Amino acid sequence: VQLQASGGGTVQAGGSLKLSCASSESISSFVVMAWHRQAPGKQREFVAAITRSGGTNYDDSVKGRFTISRDNAKNTVNLQMDMLETEDTAVYYCNVPHEGRLYWGQGTQVTVSS
Questions:
Q1: What DSSP character marks residue 90?
Q2: Is 108 exposed, middle or buried (0-12, 13-18, 19+ CB in 10 A)?
Q3: Contact of 31 with 97, CB cutoff 8 Å
Q4: Is residue 38 classed exposed, middle or buried when 0-12, 13-18 and 19+ CB atoms within 10 A define those classes?
Q5: Among candidates 18, 53, 13, 10, which has minimal Cα distance to 35?
Q6: CA–CA distance, 107 with 110 (Å, rounded to integer)
Q7: Which region, left, alpha or beta, applies to residue 41 given φ > 0 means left and ψ of -120 to 50 means alpha?
Q8: Nearest Cα to 37, choosing from 99, 108, 97?
Q9: Which of 12, 20, 66, 84 has the lowest CB atom count within 10 Å?
Q10: Radius of gyration of the chain (CA)
Q11: What is the torsional sign of CA 1, 81, 47, 38?
Q12: Residue 98 bridge partners (DSSP)
């Protein structure tokens, strides 16, 4: 499985960005897909996840601001990020556990300026 993340960039606090993660394989077989992020000098942390049936889970720090979705027709998982804060600055990674392995995308940089 190859995952390609895109959509990162620089935005002012309060702004929005939409990240996308394209899979080389059909995502309809993936039980869950997720986004993580890693800020400079910090460990990688969970952001959001979505199950095959559409159930979602968010870290408390992004609840109410971020929305994760999946498009089975396009084999993508998206992360709509609104009301961005400077603390959201990080490299964002999509990942999927599949057939006993954990696959990661290459990451996309999100920078939120004050």
A1: E
A2: buried
A3: yes
A4: middle
A5: 18
A6: 10
A7: left
A8: 108
A9: 12
A10: 13
A11: positive
A12: 101
| Integer Cα distance of 102 and 48 in angstroms | 16
Q: Which residues contact 112 (CB under 8 A, 6 or more apart)?
A: 10, 11, 12, 13, 15, 84, 85, 86, 87, 88, 89
Q: With CA atoms as reference, report the closest residue to 97 among 18, 19, 42, 36.
A: 36
3-class SS at 84? coil
4 — phi, psi (to 5°)?
Answer: -120, 110
In tens, the pLDDT along 38-94 reads 999 999 999 999 999 999 999 999 999 999 999 999 999 999 999 999 999 999 999
Backbone angles phi, psi at 65, to 5 degrees: -115, -35
C-alpha span between 107 and 36 (Å, rounded): 9
Any idea which residue has 């960039």 for tokens?
9
In the block, tokens 């709509």 appear at 80
Token pair listed for 39: 């800020």
How far is CA 18 from each of CA 12, 29, 98, 101, 102, rounded to the nearest angstrom? 14, 24, 25, 27, 23
- Name the one residue in this structure whose structure tokens are 């959201």: 88
